[in-house]
Design goal:
CATH superfamily of chain B: P-loop containing nucleotide triphosphate hydrolases
CATH topology of chain B: Rossmann fold
Oligomer: heterodimer
Largest sheet of chain A: none
Shape of chain A: elongated
Strand order of the largest sheet of chain B: 3-2-4-1-5-6-7
CATH class of chain B: Alpha Beta
Number of strands of chain B: 7
Largest interface: A-B, 32 and 44 residues
Number of domains of chain B: 1
Strand content of chain B: 15-25%
Distance between the termini of chain A: 91 Å
Order of helices and strands of chain A: HHH
Distance between the termini of chain B: 11 Å
Radius of gyration of chain A: 31 Å
Helix content of chain B: 40-55%
Strand content of chain A: under 5%
Radius of gyration of chain B: 16 Å
Helix content of chain A: 40-55%
Shape of chain B: globular
Largest sheet of chain B: 7 strands, parallel
Number of helices of chain A: 3
Number of strands of chain A: 0
Order of helices and strands of chain B: EHEHEHEHEHEHEHHH
Number of helices of chain B: 9
Structural class of chain A: mainly alpha
CATH architecture of chain B: 3-Layer(aba) Sandwich
């Protein structure tokens, strides 16, 4: 092929793309097994983003400190709070 | 400008290779080419990640609901649009075919490829009837032997032509350079001129094959 732009003269045929035409194309395709195979979205609520907020009344820096310590220990924040509660119980309640 | 759609419900027949070869050859002819990667395997996106030839633009992750407007917007820019479709029977395929000026059905010379590929040909014909306009379509045989034309290939070509189906000559020969384009990006000319690119095959012969294929496609778009 030559380097000149011979392709510039090429023209596209006019094509209607009305909703009705797309519907007809879908029907023809479906009849031959060409179905809508768009992946379905995963059902259910999306997980909430982490806020590091243990309780609405906990200051953000306290929440962050607990989150960091939990991560350092390799436990969840809930597990760390449970440990804290045990310590509190042993020193104040028991 | 024309819209060329690569369609076959069978995977691994060479749709992406055809799309890359046409895009790079048409770009070499100074055309602006927009390539739409509609394949979840993202073969063209992988090719583009290593570098696109000058004149080629890629759009990826196009789904069923976006295919028609995306083709129309790309078409409106005065570019050649090449659509690489997924290797399944989906509405995305049928919608893309409805927007085509030329549908190319790549097919390896095997009975299985012919049987599954014929579904795409049948769909084109049914869409022609439903839309009341012709949609030009052709088969290109892929991964053929460079040395000899097999008996199966000869018989398949005869059957296709006997059924009134346009068969593009030349076929695309099984060349290592074609598959290595996806590892290196760019085009065959760049591959041939770069001594650092290690290819297991004859790039010059691959380039001649690709140019002749692009020329045959061009003739069908005039």
């Amino acid at each position: 092929m030559s380097g000149s732009n011979r392709l510039a003269g090429l023209k596209a045929r006019p094509k209607d793309t009305t909703v009705e035409e797309v519907r007809r194309v879908d029907e023809v395709g479906e009849a031959r097994g060409f179905l809508d195979r768009t992946p379905r979205k995963k059902p259910g609520r999306k997980p909430s983003p982490r806020t590091y907020q243990l309780h609405p009344k906990v200051f953000p820096e306290v929440g962050e400190a607990i989150a960091t310590e939990a991560e350092r220990l390799g436990v969840t924040q809930g597990q760390l709070v449970e440990k804290m509660w045990d310590l509190y119980k042993s020193s104040h309640i028991d | 400008m024309p819209v060329i759609v690569m369609a076959s419900p069978k995977g691994g027949v060479g749709k992406s290779t055809c799309a890359v070869l046409l895009a790079s050859e048409f770009a070499r002819m100074k055309a602006d080419v927009t390539v739409l990667d509609c394949d979840p395997n993202k073969s063209l996106t992988r090719w583009a990640s290593h570098g696109l030839p000058a004149g080629v633009t890629l759009k990826s992750e196009i789904g069923r609901s976006e295919i028609v407007p995306t083709i129309r917007s790309a078409d409106g820019d005065g570019k050649i649009v090449i659509v690489d479709l997924e290797g399944v029977a989906s509405q995305l395929v049928s919608r893309a075919i409805s927007q085509a000026d030329l549908v190319i059905v790549p097919m390896q010379p095997t009975a299985l490829d012919a049987e599954i590929g014929s579904e795409a040909l049948a769909l084109v014909r049914e869409e022609e009837e439903a839309l009341g306009r012709s949609i030009r379509h052709a088969v290109v045989l892929t991964k053929t032997s460079a040395a000899v034309k097999s008996r199966v290939q000869k018989e398949l070509e005869e059957q296709l032509r006997g059924a009134g189906i346009d068969v593009i000559e030349p076929s695309l020969v099984a060349r290592a350079a074609f598959s290595e384009l996806f590892a290196y990006g760019g085009d065959l000319t760049a591959m041939m001129n770069d001594p650092e690119m290690m290819t297991g095959g004859k790039v010059d012969k691959a380039l001649i094959n690709a140019q002749a294929f692009a020329e045959a496609v061009y003739e069908r778009l005039k």
